[in-house]
Amino acid sequence: MDLSSDQQKLLHLVAIYTRTKSGKQRWMKELPLHVAIFHAIRRGAFNTYDFAPSLITSHGVRLYANMSQEALHDMKVLREKELIEKLKLSTHLYEDIGAYRITRAGIELAKTIGPKRRKEVNDALACSACSRPVMFRIVKDVEEGNVKIRAFRGCSHCNKDRGDNIGSADGDPSEFFTIHPVDFKTLPYLPEATR
Ligand SMILES: [Zn+2]
Fold it and tell me: Which of 40, 60, 64, 180 shows the smallest number of beta carbons within 10 Å?
């Protein structure tokens, strides 16, 4: 297999979230997937990945998020090899958001990834109570006119492992958005062409 160790781990991570028990595929939105990657990086699952604040758009708000450029690059490699695929969706805010899923070929290849590499990713994403993979979601709140975008972790299996935006405990997904929004009272972001 001509994939690097981290590319194999990334494929396994995408498989965890987009391959169903019955072997089918489902889409996962790009941003929660990047929160999962961020979480796995902080828990030491990847050898070469790091993250840095990047300007992104979420729920019509421009803000900084701790994205991994290495992971973004490897997502592209996995797409070129047709192991994962991307779907582009447009929201009512004229924001393009992507969703990813593993392909049939990706599912077959993921089966050949060594148990040690799979375990490192599984352990990083494991619920502290039931050990199954935790889920991530992005929520938009408006507080006193200020828009807040937050990342949350939760176990949909046992409902116990919860990480929210308050503390800075190990693996808390909230730190995905450590940097303040570009403008707290920003209006929905419109692409250049529509201004
Ligand atoms: Zn659990």
Answer: 180
| DSSP state at residue 169 | -
172 occurs within a structural domain: yes
Q: Ligand 1 centre from 5 Cα, in Å?
A: 27
| Distance set, CA 119 to CA 12, 14, 99, 132, 179 (Å) | 10, 14, 25, 12, 31
Taking ligand 1, which is a single-atom ion, which protein residues have CB atoms under 5 Å away?
127, 129-130, 155, 157-158
Instruction: Report pTM.
Output: 0.85
Cα angle for residues 5, 11, 15 (degrees, 5° grid): 140
Digit-by-digit pLDDT tens for the chain (195 residues) are 699 999 999 999 999 999 998 989 999 999 999 999 999 999 999 999 999 999 888 888 888 899 999 999 999 999 999 999 999 988 777 777 899 999 999 999 999 999 999 999 999 999 988 999 999 988 888 878 777 788 888 888 888 777 654 333 344 566 888 655 554 444 555 555 554
Instruction: Examine residue 194 and state whether it is found in any structural domain, yes or no.
Output: no
Give residue 80's domain range: 5-188
Domain count, the chain: 1
For residue 110, tell me if it sits in a domain.
Answer: yes
